[in-house]
């Protein structure tokens, strides 16, 4: 396991996944302000989890 992986989180892969999710916010056919908010909240929660994991690594 390298310095960018924890037992439950592969940091580079998680960053790619979050970036993909952020790019897709608001691009779905039936998007509305509520779905924007939900999608942004989900992405921010994932980023917060990633930041906390990186603090543990350091």
Q: What is the total tally of β strands?
A: 0
Q: Terminal Cα separation, in Å?
A: 15 Å
Major sheet attributes: none
Number of helices: 2
* Shape verdict: elongated
The fraction of residues in strands falls at under 5%
Query: SS-based structural class?
Result: mainly alpha
Summarize the helices and strands and which ones pair or pack:
Layout: H1 11-24, H2 33-57
Summarize the structure.
With 58 residues, the protein is mainly α. The chain has helices at 11-24, 33-57. It is elongated and about 40 Å long.
What does the model show?
- The protein is mainly α and 58 residues long.
- The protein is 67% helix and 0% strand.
- The protein is built from two helices and no strands.
- Helix 1 packs antiparallel against helix 2.
- It is elongated, with a radius of gyration of 14 Å.
Key phrases:
2 helices, about 60 residues, mainly alpha, single chain
């Amino acid at each position: 396991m390298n310095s960018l992986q924890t037992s439950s989180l592969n940091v580079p892969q998680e960053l790619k996944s979050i970036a993909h999710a952020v790019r897709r916010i608001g691009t779905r056919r039936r998007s509305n302000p509520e779905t924007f908010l939900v999608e942004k909240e989900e992405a921010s929660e994932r980023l917060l989890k990633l930041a906390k994991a990186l603090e543990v690594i350091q």
